[in-house]
Amino acid sequence: MLILSYLVIACSFSQKNNFPRTEMRAVWITTVANIDFPSRKGLSAEEQKKEFIQILDRCKQLNFNTVIVQVRPAADALYESSFEPWSEVLQGKQGISPGYDPLAFMLEESKKRMLEFHAWVNPFRAVANINYSNIHPEHITRKRPEWFFRYGERLYFNPGIPEVREYLLNVILEIVRKYDIDGLHFDDYFYPYPIPGEKINDDNTYDKFGKDFTNIEDWRRNNIDLFIQAVSDSLKIIKPKLKFGISPAGGWRNQNKDKRGSATLLGQPAYDNVFADTRKWLEKGWVDYLAPQMYWTIASSQASYKVLAEWWNENHFARHIYGGHALFKLANPEEKDNWNDNQEIIRQIRLNRSLKNIKGSMFFSLKHLLRNPLKICDSLQKSVFKYPALVPAMPWKDSIPPLPPDSLRANTFHNNILLYWQTPAPASDGEQPAYYVVFRFQNEMEMDFEDASKIVAILRENYYLDKDLENNRRFIYIVKSFDRLHNESKQYAKVVVATVKKLTMASPIREGKIEEE
């Protein structure tokens, strides 16, 4: 009996694990050097718009629910900025308008498709390549050259200068105030990753501002901490429900350097190499999520994806962790381990789902998703991404659920069922639903709201037409309300309806009722 009970539990878990209702599914869309978008410099406004619409349609088709779009790649902008010039990735030279506002357009089209839009900003990278980048005369590196240091072939803002941090904060807050984005996103560029033979030229800055620190490394980490905290505090005042997330290096520290670290042999952990104390940011509640770039296989002896995911699962501090996946390594002949196996990414996703505090996945990057290496997209669609998923809620930002749909009704037209309902009154926080989720069950035993295979629609409209159903079948429809931060109504509207043989008239209207979950 014990073995049988275990098997039943395992099967039940496996079903939910295969088709979770709630899971972050995001893709990074990189604009620097035209890696992902636009496909090349100099495209017309209409060509750029067409490309981005095709990108969003493909993401939606693959059941992604979020796009992370790089809107400030190198102290230039893919939006109307009062601080920085138009990005060179648009028309080939900085400062040339593309003839429209790309961020406004991308945001509008994402919302149409119910995709969350996170604006990806590179705070400290100022010039991506000093040999090839086109620099506008009014670029900030021309106006305030003392704010920067060169490292390798790049120019970086010096985080140790208070004026720099203030400037960058103002640049970011302009985006936040002007655009109705869902999230603000940073990647892993803070201080530069070490290059053999190179030295960060900030000794004079340390001498001037680092008197309270015994070493330059702690001072650099504090500079980044001050910036992250300032962004976090400002967002909580200006737009408290806006998400703030960062995608740092895959590991915080190695255990051989710090007993709190992971059992890995990371070559460039965030804490030691780019002076980013990512674990502290979670502990302090400065960020809403981290998406560590865990770009290794599960079998890696250096830094196993499994070891890192389990470490982050234990060091989440009640914030979300999303696994960062290396699509760019699939089918790459220079890579070792299991990168020639398209099931590697699938295994990583399943591992994420087995860990309570890993809330989903982010994939780098779009072009590798679109080229479909080893037919990974086909594998995603057939298995782990077979059904859509909702974005996870963040109760520390908003815990008040909306009210359930009002006056749910159903009408049968031959073998089609039309559901329609009224928008409920605002919840106690003044918010009405941002969207609705329609579930369909064949009987009460099937009523599992955590199983995404039972979702037939995610929509903003107050109606849904379920078409081409079998005749003489009974269905239970459940409609739930969700707010913008994905809190769901505690009650739901329910209606039971049956299809009928073809008739010349519609069947009588059936009224639903409100029930508790």
Description:
Residues 1-16 have low confidence and may be disordered. The chain has two domains: 23-382, TIM Barrel (Alpha-Beta Barrel), CATH 3.20.20.80; 406-516, Immunoglobulin-like, CATH 2.60.40. The strands form four sheets. An eight-stranded parallel barrel has the order 1-2-3-7-8-9-10-11, surrounded by four helices. It has a five-stranded antiparallel beta sheet with strand order 15-14-17-18-20, with no helix packed on it. Strands 16-13-12-19 form a four-stranded antiparallel beta sheet, with no helix packed on it. The chain is built from 14 helices and 20 strands. 28% of the residues lie in helices and 21% in strands. The radius of gyration is 25 Å and the shape is globular. The protein has helices at residues 2-18, 45-61, 88-91, 102-112, 140-143, 162-178, 203-209, 216-238, 270-273, 278-283, 305-314, 343-354, 366-371, 376-382, and strands at residues 24-29, 66-72, 116-121, 125-127, 148-151, 154-157, 183-186, 243-246, 289-290, 320-326, 358-364, 406-413, 416-422, 435-441, 455-459, 463-466, 474-482, 491-498, 510-511, 513-516.
